[in-house]
Amino acid sequence: MTGEEARQAFLEWLARERRAAPLTVEAYGADLARFLGFLTHHLGGEVGLEHLVGLRGVDLRAWLAHEAEGGASNATRARHLSAVRSFFRFLGRRHGVDNPALKLISAPRGRKPLPRALAPEQARQVTDEIAEMADTAALQARDAALFTLLYGCGLRIAEALALNVRDAPLPGSDAPLRVVGKGSKERIVPVLTAVRTAIADWLRLHPDHAPASPLFLGARGKRLDPAVAQKVLRDFRRLNGLPEHATPHALRHSFATHLLAGGADLRSIQDLLGHASLSTTQRYTAVDQDRLMEVWRKAHPRA
Q1: For residue 1, how many C-alpha atoms fall within 13 Å in the half-sphere facing its CB?
Q2: Model pTM above 0.70
């Protein structure tokens, strides 16, 4: 059996027995055709099952390198490798083709997308104007307090909504906010005066001042659902022409990006965000570099 015949048999099995969608079958077929095409040139002749059995790690790495040279991203090459592995599993079950070298090849890691922050004026617009979306004074105060807290302290939405009344940072105190983040790790976050004022305005209208009561309540008096907060900001951004990445988490990204632009060091930002690894925080340096390059392109007369 030639490699092409094996490919056709695999695609027929996908379509008939696995009932894969036509587009899935097409994608697998294209990925395997590229793989077999590379092997034809790499090995200097038509590929058969005996060649597939004898492939070495160096051959497979050469194929992945060839894909990269052709412009394939890590995510694309990982998908191609997954298709080849599925192909070999089929050949192993149906034709006894076993190639241990394939098991030793690690999938290329996709690059994590860079954090997408808002411009400073956009973040301020959210905190200053989002209260206008609510129908009642209480909901206006709640939304203003919540989104001012997210941007002013860099909290995750889940961290902010987990706070209770006893945790509220109030005016007249310099006490920092204690936040329990991922992995139940506690961190200390300083609180701006604007945040304390917004929280105090909300607490004046808060219906339940028991220390264990949720700080942010929904319309039915229960702890506010993150989906409700996300919808509030989604409606606001669409009415005000803000970018689609203007989400509650984007306010956390904005907090970090704007601190970095203002001269804060990475270690401090890491502590404020509660990142376990400095490498996670370092992604914000790339965001700031992109911003500087954009300013340069717009401002330099020869750019």
Answers
A1: 16
A2: no
